[in-house]
Each structure stands twice: as C-alpha cells, then as structure tokens.
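Project standup — Tuesday

K.O.: blocked on the structure for the chain from last sprint. Re-posting the sequence here as requested.
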Amino acid sequence: MARAKPLAGRTMIMSGGSRGIGLEIARRAAADGANVTLLAKTDAPHPKLPGTIHAAAAELEAAGGAVLKFVGDVRSDEQVEAAVQQTIDRFGGIDIVVNNASAIDLSSTDDISMKKYDLMQDINCRGSFLLAKLCLPHLRKSATEGRNPHVLTLSPPLNLNPAWAGRMPAYTIAKYGMSLTTLGLAEELRSDRIAVNSLWPRTTIASAAVRNILGGEQMIAKSRTPGIMADVAYLVLTSPATETTGNFFIDDDVLAAHGVTDFEQYRVVPSDTELDLDLFLDGWHITSTRR
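H.V.: unblocked you, prediction finished:
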C-alpha cells in the first residue's frame, strides 16, 4: 500500500473513534495527513474501556493528522449539528463520514430492557442517519470540488436468514437499520457522486466489545486485530466514489480483490486455531459489486 497520500488534506468526521476499530481507521487516515473530527463521549477514562477522546487525538496528531475533538453524543441533534459546524469552521469542509459509534446487547426479547433497546436504536441506526444527513450539503460540495466524498458505515450485510433476528432481535434490528441507511443513501446520492458503503469483518475483531460482552480473552485470541478493518477502510475511502457505492464489504474480500491473500499478519495470536466468524455472516457470501 506504499503510494501517494490520497487522503492528505481531506476531512473526515467520525462518530466514536476513541478506541478500537474507529481509532485505527482514523489513524490510517491521519497518517496520510487527513483532518479528523472525533465525535465521541469518552471524555474521562472508563474502568472497563481503554482510551479517551483526548488520548485518541494525541495518537492521531502523532500519526500526522490535524484533529478536532468534540465531546458529544451522536444521539443529540444539537450536538451533532455543532460538531459538523465546528468541523466546517476548522477545516473548511467535509469529505468523509464514518459511522463507527455503536451499542451492543445480544439479549433476547424477554431479557432486554426497552432502555437498552432505545439506546441501540438511537446510537446505531438513528445516529448513523443523523450524522450522514447533517453532512450531506458538505459532501455535495466535496463532490463538486472533485474531492471524492464517501460515507462509510460499520454495519453488516443485510442477511435475511431469520436465525440472526431470532438470536438477538433488538441488536439485529439496530444493526440492520444502519445497513438500510447505507442501502437507501447509496441510491439516493448516486447522482450526487457521493459513495455510500458498509464494511463488516469476516472474523471477530479484538475490541472492548469482544472482550467484555462476547467472549473474553478466549475469543480475543481467536480474533483479528483492528488493523485489518483500517487497511480495508482506507482502500474503500480512497476508491473512486462514482465507481464504489452501495456495497456491503467484508474485510478480507476487499483485501483479496486487491491482491492480498495472506491474512496471518492480522491475527492477534499467531496459530493454526480457527478464527471465530463474526455475527451476521453465516450463509451470506459477497457475490458482486454494485455500481
């Protein structure tokens, strides 16, 4: 991937990003010299979650990016609007939107509280829609200036195998809402030359959610690092917006399409142990790229 720096001078706004996959995606862009706005809630250290927006910003600046920190909540219309406006005031435009913030609870319908249901809907589905919506005028301007605008959402393919909805209805609804946002916006914005895509990992990714909710250290050992998602996001975000939209990308499929077939570098623990498949992928296979 050694080449020119296509994201130099481009401006990305990301929900979340203080840790994990989001931070790695932002770091990859910052290494090109991109401007990055982090819209995240983590102002102070959390006892179970590493990282804060301040530590993340320092890492991005060290990587070569310019950073705007906005401590806020993607559920708030006013706060997201303020984050977008401050991004425009600071950097002069917006070229990339990354919907990274997400809440997870795999409880059954009997067990989940409506408070947690609403939280997932508000952060995952509504938050992704809101951030993209408020950035649309700036993305259109980016397109007219030839700056290759993209919206990238970290959400799964729309797999209608009912097993997924049956296992965790509330979470499935919230994540598929993000993916439906991709599907709808990609078609709606096609004539505006704005790319809209989703990205999902083939395997579990070593993250706080995997460690604290899904399977602890045992699952972390059977996961890939966030670096694979960052490398793939970079490939998507630097692809021509007019040619790459409406896709539900799987990380290693994208790498394979770019000639990368050795994924061992992304293992958390080098071994022959079979990696854990991520959610929503059983029975689903990418077959083509929508144009």
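K.O.: great, moving the ticket to review. Residues 114-144 form the longest helix (31 residues). Strands lie at 11-15, 35-40, 66-71, 96-99, 150-153, 195-200, 248-250.
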